[in-house]
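TL;DR need C-alpha cells for one chain.
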Amino acid sequence: MGPRRSVRPVATIALCCAVLAAAFTAPPAQAGPQPAVRMVGESIVPHQLRFLGTTVGGLSGIDRDPYTGEYVLISDDRSYQQPARFYTARIDVDAGGVHGVTFTGTHALRQPDGSTYPPPTANDGKAVDPEEIRVDPRTGHYWWSQEGNRPKGQDPAEPLIQPSIEFTARFGGHVGNLPLPRHYRISRHEHGPRRNLVLEAITFSTNGSVLTTALEGPLLQDGPEPTTERGALARVTRQERTGEVLDQFAYPLEPLFAEPDPTSPWNPDTGVPAILAYPDDPFRYLVLERSYVPGSGFKVRLFETDIRGATEVQDRYSLATGTVRPMRKRLLTDLRDLNLSTVDNIEGMTWGPDLPGGEHTLLLVSDDNFSPEEVTQVVALGLR
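>> reply
TL;DR here they are.
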C-alpha cells in the first residue's frame, strides 16, 4: 500500500544508539555514471477510471507478460471498492515516449474455495493486502504478494493475518502459495515485520528458478525505522521456487530526506516497494526506494545493488547486534532530477521493451491510494 497515513504507536525496542551504530555502518550510496538513466516519457491514467465495473487505482505492482506482450498490474484495493483484483493492459512505449495505457482485462483474485477475498471489515482473518505481482517465467501463472495484518496494539478483536505469496492462474483462480522465511511471520509481540512494512517487493530470476523478496522496512528486532540522522536495514531473501531459503542479506535503507512537518497528523514513511532482478546477473538487482515526508512530499530513488560480499543473515534473529555488512548499492537516479510532471507514490517496477541503441526500458507505476491528491502515473525510463 502507499505511505501510512495514520499515526502509529511506536514499538519499544531496547536498543541503544551506540549498539545500533556498531551493528550497521553503510557507506553512502555512490552516484552512477551519467547519463545512466534518462526520462523516456510518462502517461497519467484518469483518476477513478471505470473499467469493466471496477475502479482503476491503487496500482502497486506491474510486470511485463512475455506470453502476451501486455502488462499485468495489481491493485492494492483490499476489497473495499471492489474485490481484490489485477488488471491487464497494453502500454505503448518507444524511444519517443509513453503514448498511452489501454486496459484490456481485469480479474478478481480468488481464495482456494473459488470465492473472492472479503474486505477487512469482515474481521474473519481472510482479508488480503495485495502489493506486488510477477509473471512466472515457467508456467505463466501470476505470483502476487500481500502484506497481511499486524493488529494495532493488543486489540484481540483485530485479526492477525500472515503475509503470503500466492500463485494465481491467468484468470484469477487460486493455484498455491510459497512457504515464507520464519522472520517474515507477524506476531502480537515485539518482533517480526512492522505493520504495513512487509512484502511489497518480489522478483523472479530470468529462468524462474529463484524468487527474491525484499521486506519494505526493518523488522522490529532489527532496529528503528529511518530518521534524518540514520538509515535502517531491510531483509532481502532468495528462495527456490519450492520455498527453500537459499540465503538472506541486509539492504541498507537511506535516511529520511527531510524533517517531517511537526504539525502534520501523518508519519514519515520510507522503504522498498519494488525489487527487480537483472536478466544477465543473478547477484545484481534494481531496488526502488520510496519515501514520503509530511510537508516535503515524495522522494523516489533508483539504486543498483549487489549481494556479493554481503553478510548472510538468515540465521540472525536481530541485525541490531554484531557486525553486518549490507548489500552494496549505488544511486542510478533520483526521480526529482527527471523531467516528470510530478513525483508521486511510485510502487511498481518492471522491464519494458529494449530500444534502439542498446537501451533497456524500465516501466514504473504509482499507487494513487484512490485519493484525488495523488495520481496513477506510468513512467518509462531508459537505462544504458
